[in-house]
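User: My collaborator sent over this chain with a note saying "see what the structure looks like." That's all I know about it. Can you take a look?
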Amino acid sequence: MDAENALKRLKDINLIHSDLQLELMSFGIRFNQQYLSFYSRLRTSVFVQYDKYLPELLIHGNAAYIGEEIRMDHMGASGYAWIEHSVGYARAINDNLQAGLRLKYLNGLAGSHLAQSHISLNTAENTHDLTLESSFLAHTSFPDTDEGFRPTL
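Assistant: Without extra context I'll predict from the sequence alone. Here is the result:
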């Protein structure tokens, strides 16, 4: 992959999105012209928004920005996890067509959303010291335990 070409194709604000669906259990039963199905799956969805400056800094470093302040105020992230349970019913209308419906029950496990972020990076002209200033506002929802939620890294 050509890093320079990739940088040229980036927009000022970029988005990465990832979904995961893990089938925990699923089965179906067919009888005559009818089909009954059940499933449970774990689902996650993650969104990351970043400024074009971030990959530029990672690839080229900060030499081009000496004496300047770089502001990355469009950084953001959201992540959600839930379990999805479903019951479905379908019936054959004719040899080429089936119609059905599916009912779902969603059970939220965790969620996090970075509502605001302000990041500035300054490289001093004489000493090339880096100064990073940031502030974030995040909204989270995690399971509650008797001892409280303690994330481990």
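A starting point for your reply to your collaborator: The chain is about 10% helix and 65% strand.
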